[in-house]
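Lay summary. Proteins are chains of building blocks that fold into shapes, and those shapes determine what they do. In this project we predict the shape from the chain. Here is one chain we studied, written as its sequence of building blocks.
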Amino acid sequence: MTYNILVCDDEKDIVNAIEIYLRSEGYNVISAYDGVEALDKLESHDIHLIIMDVMMPGLDGIAVTAKIREQDNLPIIILSAKGEYTDKVLGLNVGADDYITKPFNAIEFLARVRSNLRRYVDLGSMVKNDNSLVTGRISLNDKAKEVKLDGKIVDLTPNEYGILKLLMENKGRVFSSNEIYEYVWDQPAYDVKKIISVHISNLRDKLEIDPKAPDHIKTVYGMGYKLVGD
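And here is the predicted shape, written in a compact code that computers can read:
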């Protein structure tokens, strides 16, 4: 299967460079140069992953990511300039799955693309394990790839699902941010504490009665995160 990747950046040289990297790995690339065009291309093509620049005139990458998350859980990797820490956090908070800092290394870039695509494809595929996991008000059915809270389906991104599944399968065990990243993203961890903390925060917003005082997804300060509950 050939995967379609939407690349959106207002700098054409960057889009061209990314396209060369992706096509060398056999991916099909759909290009866009602003947020409005990206949304139009998403409507007219079967997209499997989006690479989105943050800083664009008009509708920027943060706004586009938020709009996409209103109706679609396909993986989104945001691009941000080196040192633009706030942009990375904003992108993750509105639903991006990962971020890459420009300028980026081609090998790392392609590894992140493969990792995010793999999780997205696995989320929609048949799996061997059809057992359900239950912790308190939360249930996870890995065959159906469904998470429910009090019996109602909760919409999670692939990375959120992967983190929750890891914690539910190992209830009570503490995982560091690096361990979570290496398991869910399936690649070496480097400077990932903020990525994981934002995803944990998003999970709490969706699954906890009071996200600031969570009953299930606990922080073990200085060590990591664990899931607790009956």
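What the prediction tells us: Residues 106-123 form the longest helix (18 residues).
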